[in-house]
Queue: 4 jobs
Job 1
Amino acid sequence: MPVMVSTGELNEKLQDAIEHQIIPQLQQTRLLSKLQSEQSLPRLTLVFDRKAYDIPFFTRLWKNHQIAIITYRKNVKDTWDENGFTSHDVVVGSNTITMQLCEKEIILNRDTFTEVRRLIQNKHQTSVLTNNKQINPFLIVNLRQAPGRQVILPHDRPAANRTLATAHLQ
C-alpha cells in the first residue's frame, strides 16, 4: 500500500514535486509530523532516479526534514579498483542475482554519503548514493532495480517490522 501517490510530469520537475507536493503531504502524517529526537537518524528515505540528483537538494532534505535519499549518482567519471568488488546475492523481485559490489564512504560538497557501485561484465560501474547510515548499503542496489518507481521508506517502526511503501510518480 503506497504512502502516497503523486501524478504529473516529473522529469526535471521532480525536485519541485518532492519539496512542494510530497513533503507537505507527508508533514500531515506521522512520518514527518515532528522531528526525531535522534538527529542522526532519518525520519524516512526517498528513493528516486537521477532526475532529482543535486547535492544541495539532498542537503536541504536532510537539514530541513531529516529525509535521507537513495539515488543513482550522476556523472561518475572515475573507476574503482576491480579488486575491491565482492560477490553478493541480491534478491530482485522473485529472482536472486549475484552482483559484484563495492561500498565506500565519500564526501560531496562537505556532506558524507555511502556510494555503492556494481561492476558489470563489460567493466562498467553503476553507482548508487545514499546518506542513510542505517540501511544495509547493499540493499540500496536492490531498491534501485525498479525503474520509474519512487520509494518512500518510513523509519518510524523497528527494522524487523518495516515494510517498503512506494509512491509511483509518473
Note: Helices lie at 14-27, 55-65, 139-143.
Job 2
Amino acid sequence: MIVWGGYDGSNDVNTGGRYNPSTDSWTATTNSNAPMGRELHTAVWTANEMIVWGGYFVGQGSLNTGGRYNPNTNAWTTTNSTNAPSPRYYHTAVWTGSETIIWGGTAGLDYLNTGGRYNPGTDSWTATSTINAPDGRYAHTAEWASTEMIIWGGVGQLNYLNTGGRYCAQSGPTPTPTPTATASLTATPTSTPTLTPTATATPTSSGTPTATPTATPRVTPTPRIHPTARQRPTPPPHLTPVPPPPSPRPTPHPRPSP
C-alpha cells in the first residue's frame, strides 16, 4: 500500500511511504522529483505505477499538475501538463486499464463538468467531451465499469445531486454506422373497376311524425382552483465550495491520557 501527500496539521506535504503487510514495515517514498505538496488530490494504481494529480495547495490554490511513482525503482516522473484539465480539487479519477480519467471537481467558486484522459504510455492528455455531460459537481463518486465511467451524486450549483452520467472512453477512429438497406418499390397492378348495378329506390310509406326531442342543458363545470407556485428554498450556505482555510489551522484537541 502506498500513502502519499495530504495535510500534516501545518503544511501540505509531498512525502509518503510504502507499507508491506507481510513484514508489517514501512519504506519512505523518495522526494526526488516528487510533485509539490497537496491535499484533496486523486491517486490511481496502474498495475506498476501510482499516478497522482490535481488537488489543493495552501497559499497557491487548486492544481493541475501531478506525477507517476514507480515503487520498483522508487522514482517519480512528472506528468505532462500540456492539454491537462483546468486546476481543481474534490474531483474523481478512475483507471481504465490504459488511461486515467479525471472529471468534475471545483476550483473554489465554480462547479466543473469537464475533465481529461491521461495516457501514461504517451504522457499525453485528451479532453473529455462536454456534449450531454452531467451538471458540474464536486465530491461525487466515479467508477470504471469495463467499458465506461459512471459518475453519480455530489454537490451542485444549488443543492446535493442525485443525477449522474456514463462516459464511454472510446479510443481510435469513430465507428461508421452500418447502412440500412432500403427496400425497392414494386409496382402494384391497378385492378379494373367493375360496374355495380344501381339499386332501384323503393317507395317509403309515410310514417307517423316523430316528436323532436328537447335538448337537456349541460351543466357548466366549476372552475378549477390553480395553486400558487411555491418559491424554491434557498440552499444552505455550506453547499457553496470553499477552499480549505489557510494556515494556521485549528489546533487539535489534546488526546486524553490513559
Note: Residues 11 and 20 are 27 Å apart (CA to CA).
Job 3
Amino acid sequence: MRDGKYTGLIAVRKGSQRIPNKNIRNFCGTSLLEIKVKQALNCKMIDEVVVSSDCELMLEKATSLGAIAIKREEKFCTNDVAMNDVYEQLAKEIDCEHIVYLHVTSPLLQDSTLLSAIEKYKNMESEYDSLATVEVVKKYLWNDKKPVNYDPDHHPRSQDLPEYYALNFAINIVSRDLMISRKNIVGSSFYPYTISEKESVDVDTMHEFQIAEMFYKNYLKGKDYEKYSKLYNKKGIMTKKDLEPNYYGVDPALDKKWDRYGHACEGKRQLYDVMQFKPTSIVDIGCGYNEFLKLTLLYDKSLEPRWRSLNGPVVGVDIACPEADIVAPAHRLPLEDGQFDLLVSFDCMEHIPEEEVELSIKEFSRVARRIYLQIALRDSPTKIDGEPVHVCVKTKEWWLDICKKYFPNATIRRWNRPGEPTEHIIIYGDNKE
C-alpha cells in the first residue's frame, strides 16, 4: 500500500507554438487548463492540486479555481531545456510523497479513469515503481525498412498482432523521491495502465484540438444526445414493432408512436410505492415531459397536511426533451451536492451507453441521498435512423453491482420475471455506509 500525501501536478507554460495560447484558449466554453484543474480537484484521492507555470494568467486562473499556483523560473520554460531537468525541479518544489502528473492536453480523460488509476498505483505489486497510462497499439509497424511486429510472408490479421504499448502521458503517477532521482515521471519498471483510444487523444496540433472539441461536446451533451433530439423533434426514420419504418407524417399508426415518446409516464405504476418512502424532494432522470413529477405533486397535495412529505425541489432532467426542467445527460447533472432526497428514474438507464452508466450512478450519489431506479432488462425493437434505443441491456446482477458501489444498501425491490409482458427490476437504496 503506497500511503502518504498525493499531489496532483499540472505543468503549463506560455508560448505554445502550434496552437497559440493552447492551454487557456476557448475549448467548448472552458479551457484545457480549467478542465484539468477541476478534474484533479474533484478527485477524492488527490490531497492537493499544484499548477506550475511561467504565465501569470494561467497562475491566476489556477488560484481562482482553488489550486496552488507556483511561479516557474524562466529557464525551466524554454524550448531548449531538457525535460529531465524540468521534472526534477517540479518535484523539488512540492512537499508530498506521491505525484499524480496530469497533462492538460488530455481533456477526454474520464474522472473514473483517474480515480481507478490512483487506486491501482496505491495497491500495485512491488515490482512496479510507477504507473503510466498507455494505449494498446496493434498496427503493422516498420522501422529501418524492416517489419517490427509481424512477418510479411505470413501476414497475420490485425487482431492477432502482438500488443505494443504507446505512452500517452494522460496520467503518470510516481513517488516524489523517484521523480527527483530519476528526473522523470516514468520509472524504470512502470505499470502500463491501459486507457481507451478516445481518452488517449493528446492535443498537440490544431487538428487534434478540433477533434478533441468534437468529442468533448458529445461528452457534455451525452453520447446519444443527437439520437434523442431526433426522437423528441420527430426527425429521422423511426422503427417500431410490426410497423414499416418511416418518417413522421407518413403513417398515422407510426405517428402515434412518435407522439407518445416522452409521454409514456413509465413511473405512474410505481407512484404509490415511491411516495411510501416520503421523499422531501425528488429529481427524475429521463423525465420526458415531466408527467411523473406532476403526478407526485398532485398525490402529495391530495394528502392531509400532516401526511405530506414534499417540501423541497421537484425537478425533471432529460437528455433532450425540450420541456424538461433541465436538459442534461445523466452523467453530468448541473445540480448541487446533496440537493435531493430521492432520485428516481423509470426505463431510462437501459438507454444510457454502457461507458456512461457508472459515471451516471456516481453522479446520482453526489446529488441525492436515495435512488429508486426502474430498469428494463430486455432489448427494444424501437430504433431511430437504425440506431437502437436500448443500448445497455444487462442482467439484474450487473445493475445491482454497479449501484452498490455508490449506494451500499441498494437492493432489488422488485423483479418482473421473464415471461411476463415486460422484464424490469426496481433498485432502491441509499448512499449511507
Note: The first helix runs from residue 32 to 42.
Job 4
Amino acid sequence: MSETKRKMPVYRCHKLVHALHIASVDGLVITPSEIGFAPFSVEHSFLAKHEPVAGGYFVVYAGGYTSYSPAEAFEQGYAPVENNTSNVILQIAKACHSVNKAYCESLGDLSQPEWRDAPVWQRESAMKGVVFHRANPDAGPAASHESWLAEKKAAGWVYGAVKNPDATPPTHPCFTEYENLPKEQQAKDALFIAVVRSFD
C-alpha cells in the first residue's frame, strides 16, 4: 500500500471545555438555551470567522479561547459532565421535546419543530418543566400542568382557540385548568413526567 493510501492514526479527544447551547443569534447578541445564563455579546470578528447559528454551541477552551461548533460535531465529540446541572437539564428537555413532537405527530399535529428550530420560549418552557419535576419528583400530571400554566400567566399568555405566540397577548388553547383539558392533552403531561423520571 502506498504511503498516501494508508489510514492516518486515530485520536480521541480528552479535552474539557465550557459550552453553551445557542438558542438564538441576533446581531452581535447570543442567547443561550440554558436557564440562568443571560444573553451576551460577541465581537464582529467572532461572527465573521465562525458564523454561529441557533442550535450550535458557543465553546470556551482552556486559556479562554472562544469558538463555535455546529450541534452535530459538538455532540458527537463531547458529552455533558455528569454533575453539570445545566447540561443535564438541557439534555432532558431535548428528550421531552422529541417525545412530545412524536406524540403530537401521532395525533396529526405536525406543527412541532425540531429542538434546534424551536423558538426560545418553547425551549425555556421545556427546561423549566424539567427543573420543576427534578425539584418535585412526586408531582403528577395535574401539578405539571399547573406549573406550566403559572409560567404562561407570568409571561402574559391568555386562552385562545389557536396557539399563537406572536399574538398580542400570545394565546394557547391549553391555557385552562388541567381537568378541562382533553384527554390527549393531559397525556402530554404524563409523557413529560415519564421522560424526566427515565433519567433518574
Note: The chain has two domains: 18-77, 85-198.
